[in-house]
Fold this protein.
Amino acid sequence: MKRIILIVMWLCLWFGCFSSQTEKRYFQLELSPGTHSNFKKIDKILLIESVDTEGLYDDFRLIYRNSPYQVNYYSYDFWVKKPAVLIKQSMLNFLVDSGVFRRVIDKYSVFEPELILKTRLFIIEEVDKGSAWYGRLSMEIEIYNFKTKKSLWLHRFDKQIPLAKKEVTLLPMAISEILKAELIEVLEKLAEIIR
């Protein structure tokens, strides 16, 4: 009888009967294009450079914090790519879909860029404040002239928006919403400057 119990226990351990393993979840950003008919056209070729990232956020794991003094990582929730790559790809897709520029490229090619978009990512995280959770994104976006290397505009922001409920699956949507709103502001300002 002891032998049967040991075999059953061994089989349960082998097949994970006692395991509390949770499935991993992977998230991405999505800046739905919406309508861009109101954007003024900028007849320039734009190069989007790689996004510089603060070391803490150069990680696949989603970060959350309960206070300014403690950083926590979700054990089973990950970005599909590192945030710098996700942000660059999201900006590239959004700007191509917008139709604002003559061409948008992400590496040097046969097309010589006229404008460069340089980005630094400072913070991408969930902030848990008592009864509400927030998505937080802090970045710097700079547009400069490729030939003169002169900065045309530097845009810094640190935004938080509340999640509809305390659920980590809503974080990518909040981050996407912030990034889209800030890119729209950049496009509007850039159109004024170039005009």
Q: What stands out?
A: The mean pLDDT is 88.
